[in-house]
Amino acid sequence: MKNGLAISILFVSSIGWGLTWLPIKGINQMGLDGLYLIFIAFASAGILMSPLLFIQRKSWRGNLQFLLLIAFFGGLANLLFQTAMVHGDVVRVMILFYLLPVWSVLGGWYVLKEKPDWIRIGAVIISLVGALLILNVDSHTFDGLSWIDVIAIGAGMAFAFNNILFRKTAEQPLASKVSAVFIGCALLIGTYLVFNTPTTGLPENGAPLYAALYGIFFLTLITFGTQWGVTQLEAARAALIIVMELVAAVISVALLTDVVLSIREIIGGALVLSAAVLEGWREPDTETVEVVKS
Fold first, then answer.
1. d(CA 17, CA 221)
2. Is residue 215 part of a domain?
3. Helix 244-256 to helix 263-281 angle, to the nearest 10 degrees?
4. For a surface tag, which of 4, 155, 180, 187 has the fewest beta carbons within 10 Å of its beta carbon?
5. Could you tell me if residue 289 is inside a domain?
6. Parent domain of 164
7. How far apart are CA 293 and CA 178, in angstroms?
8. Is 286 a member of any domain?
9. 145: pLDDT confidence band, cut at 50, 70 and 90?
């Protein structure tokens, strides 16, 4: 019964992550600058979550450096991911973000001293081949690479290292870590906005309110849904369900927009998706994994 509930919640939350582009692009089209949108959303969620971080503060004594690193890498991952979603092609951003096996292997080897097996090495190779196809890279040029591609890949890198920090602090309360991610993202954007004010101000329509509601309800619910779900299920099963993020993004874009993927992007996306499934499937069934997206 508990597994069934966890599967359902993780499934719905994963679909929610695949549909985040809808509120992001919708609010942005109402005239709210992307940085203001992300700041309002994450500041609102951070304010909502801050009491939990305060209540659980004693559990971080002696480990404060890890909480700060989680705030930085988790905040950076969300800042880059949400920015790429605002300005970029949704499917392309999601596929490039899903180069997680590459960064997970490198980070696990460097930080956790994990020796990669042949399955993980294979997942890395498949991911890289898929990325090369998507980015249209040949032996002469990186003309297919845009700044949005760069920050989408960067988001995946920051997310992978954030996951490693979550695993390294597995004994610490989950709510504190999620709170730190929200607050970290808001602080990073807030610091940037102090020195670089967007040319457009806040619109007088309901866009800022919608951004706050997006953070308080949508982001908070799907984040906790994902976190609780993955800690209740075997890693392999959780990994397969989480892939629904990418599936939901592709299907929703295909149904609601006129975006058409090239054959190169379709093949590359299939390879990246396969690598993500392979990376998750290799974990022992008895292991649970904490994954935080935002």
1. 10
2. yes
3. 160
4. 4
5. no
6. 2-281
7. 9
8. no
9. confident
